[in-house]
Specification:
The chain is of the alpha/beta class. The protein has four domains: 4-150, Rossmann fold, CATH 3.40.50; 159-228, no CATH class; 230-340 and 371-406, Heat Shock Protein 90 (2-Layer Sandwich), CATH 3.30.565; 420-504, Arc Repressor Mutant, subunit A (Orthogonal Bundle), CATH 1.10.10.10. It has helices at residues 16-28, 51-61, 83-93, 112-124, 133-150, 174-188, 198-204, 215-221, 225-228, 258-272, 294-307, 339-342, 353-361, 371-381, 404-411, 428-440, 445-452, 457-470, 493-504, and strands at 4-8, 36-39, 64-69, 97-103, 128-130, 208-209, 212-213, 234-238, 250-254, 275-277, 288-290, 316-320, 324-329, 388-391, 395-400, 474-476, 489-491. A six-stranded mixed β-sheet has the order 9-8-12-13-15-14. Strands 2-1-3-4-5 form a five-stranded parallel β-sheet, with helices on both faces. Strand 14 and strand 15 (395-400) form a beta hairpin.
Length: 505
């Protein structure tokens, strides 16, 4: 049996009890004792060797470095570093697998250098906080089991391949499976016909486990996915400033399948950011540009939904501030990837491979690990800063806003000509639709979705067309045949009067 050495950070007197408890816990656990040996500096006998030489050597010999950090910093060497700080630096330099646990919720009582060390660690990896030994031990246990699974020393199937407790075929939507088949056939040449029985579709996609729907099946095709997977919802918030502050001007919690969540969250963002509609001076079609490329917004959100940790109680959060968009998901990078490598060409390592496969078949994602590179290139192409990626208590993608960029892209000017103004009668999505039709004239359903970067026909009807039709702002060009394939939508006189009033105000 392969034995792995765990090095636990040394000589902080205040945490001696936690270190000893952790060693005893791992030694007595029936599973972990088969894989791990624990090194504690205070267990060494007296010897004619420098202490710093010993613990630095042991860091080099270990497989996992566990840092337990408290309030005290420790005795400083001539370079001003404590033993724990030197150990952490050495483990980082050698590329060791690092686990950091911080005692206490607040940092105000900590030594300034300990605060700095915690900040450095937090910028590089996900750290966990604990208040007592009883909280520390199961956290370390979970992290070590994850390590064993990542190294394939313990073999577990991915979460999305596991059976969804209590879910049956009746909890899946035939309509959603039919819709998936149609899209997948057109997008990727999926081999199954649209009249294939649902059970055969699920079998083909490996979405059944002993005849029971898997978690991925429920996330993709469930009638009510959140009935079984409560935290799979997406929370969207819009703040006028640069910080999270109440009251929140706009807040939505979206539920539904993975496809629904992506489409609704993307629509939320696109309805809040600036949209410029140019003139037909250079083309028969008026150019349309958002301040952030819709493809970048979609990529950030679909990545959060596809690759998040669905065992977490946290939900994906999409937060739009005055200067940036932040997309947070409860997850982390796979062991083979770092934040630095993420920005370079890399292979695709999905955390939920079955979920990712169906998203790939419907062209929501690619399988080549090119998403981040595409986001960076698209932002560069319109003069935006590159997206930022960070690890906190989850994975965060940050896209900087530059509202004037959309205007400049279609008009060559930097003075905003189209800025969404919300009124009691006209919601942001409806206003975007009205300004588009005002510039382009009558457009079909497909043309509207294409111009606005919207993918979900149903959602576009519910958020854009239906409210506009109900308010008498938009009308059908062929009212006697509402389902005609030639049907288009145009502004009414009421809408033109509203637009004229907005322009003059």
């Amino acid at each position: 049996m392969l034995r792995l050495k765990v090095f636990v950070s040394s000589v902080q007197k205040e945490l001696e009890g936690e270190r000893q408890a952790l060693k005893a816990y791992l030694k007595d656990d029936a599973l972990l004792c088969r894989f791990f040996d624990v090194f504690l500096f205070e267990d060494l006998p007296a010897a004619d060797r420098r202490a710093d030489a010993v613990y630095i050597k042991e860091v080099g010999a270990c497989d996992i470095y566990v840092a337990i950090l408290g309030n005290e910093y420790g005795r400083e060497d001539p370079d001003g570093l404590s033993p724990t700080h030197r150990e952490f630096n050495e483990a980082t330099r050698l590329g060791k697998h690092r686990l950091v646990f911080v005692k206490g919720i607040g940092d105000s009582d900590r030594h300034p250098k300990m605060q700095a060390l915690i900040a450095v660690a937090g910028a590089q990896l996900i750290r966990r906080r604990f208040r007592s030994t009883d909280e520390l031990l199961p956290s370390v246990y979970a992290s070590l089991v994850d390590f064993l699974a990542a190294k394939q020393l313990l073999r577990f199937g991915p979460f999305d391949a596991a059976s969804c407790p209590e879910a049956t075929m009746q909890d899946l939507s035939e309509e959603k499976i039919r819709l998936f088949l149609g899209i997948a056939r057109r997008a990727r040449g999926f081999p199954l016909s649209e009249d294939t029985q649902s059970v055969h579709v699920l079998e083909h996609l490996n979405l059944l486990n002993s005849g029971q729907p898997t978690n991925a099946a429920v996330l993709l095709f469930g009638r009510e996915p959140q009935r079984f997977l409560i935290s799979s919802e997406v929370k969207c918030a819009h703040f006028h400033g640069t910080e999270v502050r109440k009251p929140i001007p706009s807040y939505q919690v979206y539920k539904g399948t993975a496809f629904d969540l992506v489409d609704q969250a993307v629509d939320f963002v696109l309805s809040k950011i600036n949209l410029a509609v140019g003139t037909r001076e250079r083309s028969t079609q008026a150019p349309v540009a958002y301040e952030m490329p819709p493809e970048v917004v979609r990529e950030a959100i679909v990545n959060a939904v596809a690759h998040r940790d669905y065992t977490s109680n946290g939900s994906v959060q999409v937060m739009l501030f005055s200067d940036r968009l932040e997309v947070w998901n409860p997850g982390t990078l796979p062991p083979t990837l770092t934040l630095e490598r993420l920005r370079q060409p890399h292979g695709s390592v999905p955390g939920n491979p079955l979920l990712a496969e169906s998203l790939y078949l419907t062209k929501y994602i690619e399988r080549m690990g090119t998403g981040v590179g595409d986001m960076i290139e698209r932002c560069r192409s319109v003069g935006l800063p590159e997206p930022e990626f960070s690890l906190t208590d989850g994975f965060v993608t940050t896209i900087r806003r530059k509202p004037e960029q959309a205007i400049k892209a279609v008009t060559g000017q930097t003075t905003p000509q189209v800025t969404p103004q919300v009124t009691p009668q006209v919601t942001p999505p409806v206003e975007v639709l009205l300004r588009l039709l005002d510039s382009c004239g009558a457009l079909s359903n497909t043309e509207i979705r294409k111009r606005l970067g919207l993918k979900d026909r149903k959602h576009m009807h519910e958020r854009y067309l239906e409210p506009a039709l109900a308010e008498g702002l938009v009308e059908l060009t062929i009212p006697d045949k509402p389902k005609s394939r030639l049907q288009k939508y145009r502004l009414t006189e009421k809408a033109r009067a509203w637009i004229a009033g907005e322009k003059s105000s």
